[in-house]
Hints:
Elements: H1 12-22, H2 26-35, H3 41-49, H4 54-73, E1 74-80, E2 92-95, H5 102-113, E3 119-124, H6 131-139, E4 142-145, H7 151-171, E5 175-179, H8 194-201, H9 209-216, E6 218-225, H10 235-242, H11 253-263, E7 267-273, H12 279-287, H13 291-309, H14 314-323, H15 335-348, H16 354-371
Parallel strand pairs: 1-7, 2-5, 2-6, 3-4, 3-5
Antiparallel strand pairs: 6-7
Helix pairs in contact: 1-6, 2-4, 4-5, 9-12, 10-16, 12-13, 14-16
Amino acid sequence: MSKFDTIRPYSDTEVNEGIRSVVHHPMMKALMNFTFPEQEDSVWKEQLVRTHSIRDFQINFVYHSIQKVLHRSSEGLTTSGFEKLEKNTSYLFISNHRDIILDTSLLNVSLFDHGLVMTASAIGDNLVKKDFLLKLSKLNRNFLVQRGLPPRELLQSSKLMSEYIGQLLFRENRSVWIAQREGRTKDGNDATHQGVLKMLAMGSDEEQVMDYFKKMKIVPVSISYEYDPTDALKMPQLMAEANNEVYIKEKNEDFITLLSGIMGQKKRIHIHVGDVLKDELEIIKKNEDNSNRQIQALAQVIDDSILSTYKLWPTNFIAYDLLHQSEKHQHLYTEEEKSLFERRLEMKIDSQNPKMVESFLSMYANPVTNKMKYQNAF
Length: 378
């Protein structure tokens, strides 16, 4: 028994048994029929039961599923920055988080296309309560973030996860993806939660925590979708927060959001990977002698990278202008794009509810507001 057994994905020796336990599941059939619509079931089943490694499962099945998702629900994925990364090198990708499954899946597709090390990716255990989804996540090299724990158990869980991330990066030469905060950004305001960085620092074996972060090769990642396929689903929570109410999720809400994120229309998608943080860490080490202030400064550095490189779409500029009743950015979108966005707004939410309209528009407009803080942003 390894100390990481409660959170780790399958090892390659366990992959075939894991596949065989789900190969006849109706959800596997639905996934494979979506991915390979021309194939007889017997063909993909035979190929699946001959699969003995996570890499083979990802390349031969998951990669094709994601390509099919892109074809069906988007106008394509573009990338930037990947050419700066080195092959056979592990990185810690700290990313803004918009979609439960696609953020990390699209990053891995891009890493594979550029011949780079793919990631082990953090996923909340609340999202894989169904046995099939748990097994699928373990086949796709996800490790579990345990949610909703009391303080003492949360501390133990954080220590375990920080150790496991260290094991992946330094011993297994495996890249890691983790979101900059717990849960997806609902309001378009991407910000790094210091708790995530404090958890990572728990695994440090260095006298100076910035030296440990340097060793991790942190790469900030910004991912942006022209249309958020779950925008309307985020409304109840945003409205509750606006009214200072406690929001309680519906029973299958996470699962519905997960499916909507995969199959809902996204139009264009862009992923940018920033530079590996090196010099910035030296400056923090020199200027801040308190570890809390160092963590605070690092969170700001990650935010600066993600916000300044975030790809803005016409939808963002339209929402900003509608929200502020301005024409400031009208040269960045067409009248047709504006009327399509307004139609979406009317179809998705109650356009007679001013608070709801404001929340919906803010979700798309906030990335513009955030990027305006950086000179020459657009």
